[in-house]
Specification:
alpha/beta; 9 helices; 7 strands; globular; SDR_fam; NADP; Sc_DH/Rdtase_CS; NAD(P)-bd_dom_sf; 2-deoxy-D-gluconate 3-dehydrogenase
Length: about 260
């Protein structure tokens, strides 16, 4: 039976795990998924920031229901914490059918001076934790009833395509996220799991504070963006709902750039 247009984008009855959802792009995505009908499981380092939780709790959806919101704490720089996450969440009975891996960190040093400890931390948080969570929640989704068993949305970057400056670890991690997205998609697309990524352009968040505060670099970046502005977290709400919903059911292994036209320049 064909779905109506609103049904294609509805996430009613779905449950989404979101990392990095306490701020920036991840927070906007978590709120958008909740607005579309999903219940949300936020993965946070601690519970000192409850802004996203409180925003979601304040929502009253078109069906007059309020989304359920849960917080699980984990340090994504700890491989042990990450490995334990999916078993903890699934053991509590959560039927997870959406995963968004938005958490990420940045370290800036000239390449010839880049510390190995910073390299290892960035790769663990930005890439290895993504692999682990995709693997573990993907394994669960494979056992869900089909034909659409789940949606995985990784957050890539313009540095998935470009090398960047003074960010060799970040660029390597985000290049890895793009390839990891394609690798999982190759195995799971035929089994009802859509694996895609969003590659943000230059977005006015605290991760880009060093660039924003560099007057020359900020001006150079803005001059290249055809849209004439930096992005903001709300620009990612629509793309995330699309990739999480049945509207994108035939979209697999895609790295969707949301960059104001930067890559087309």
């Amino acid at each position: 039976m064909a779905l109506s247009y609103p049904q294609m984008f509805s996430l009613q009855g779905r449950k989404a795990v979101v990392t990095g959802g306490s701020r920036g792009i991840g927070a906007a995505i978590a709120v958008a998924l909740a607005e579309a009908g999903a219940d949300i499981i936020l993965i946070q380092r601690d519970t000192s920031n409850l802004q996203t939780k409180e925003t979601i709790e304040s929502l009253v959806r078109h069906d007059q229901s309020s989304p359920n919101i849960f917080i699980y704490t984990a340090d994504l720089s700890s491989s042990a914490d990450v490995k334990a996450l999916a078993p903890r969440i699934l053991a509590d009975g959560h039927d997870v059918s959406i995963l968004v891996t938005s958490a990420g960190i940045q370290r800036r040093h000239p390449a010839h001076q880049f510390p190995l400890d910073d390299w290892n931390e960035v790769l663990q948080v930005n890439l290895t934790s993504v692999f682990t969570l995709c693997r573990d929640f993907g394994a669960y989704m494979l056992g869900r009833p089909g034909p659409h068993r789940g949606s995985i949305i990784n957050i890539a970057s313009l540095t998935s395509f470009q090398g960047g400056i003074t960010v060799p670890a970040y660029s390597s991690s985000k290049g890895g996220v793009a390839q990891l997205t394609k690798a999982f998609s190759n195995e799971w697309a035929s089994r009802g799991i859509n694996v895609n990524a969003i590659a943000p352009g230059y977005v006015a968040t605290d991760m880009n504070e060093a660039l924003i505060n560099n007057e020359t670099r900020a001006r150079q970046i803005l001059e290249r963006i055809p849209a004439g502005r930096w992005g903001n977290p709300e620009d990612f709400k629509g793309p995330a709902v699309f990739l999480a919903s049945r509207a994108s059911v035939y979209m697999n292994g895609e790295i969707l750039t949301v960059d104001g036209g930067w890559m087309g320049r």
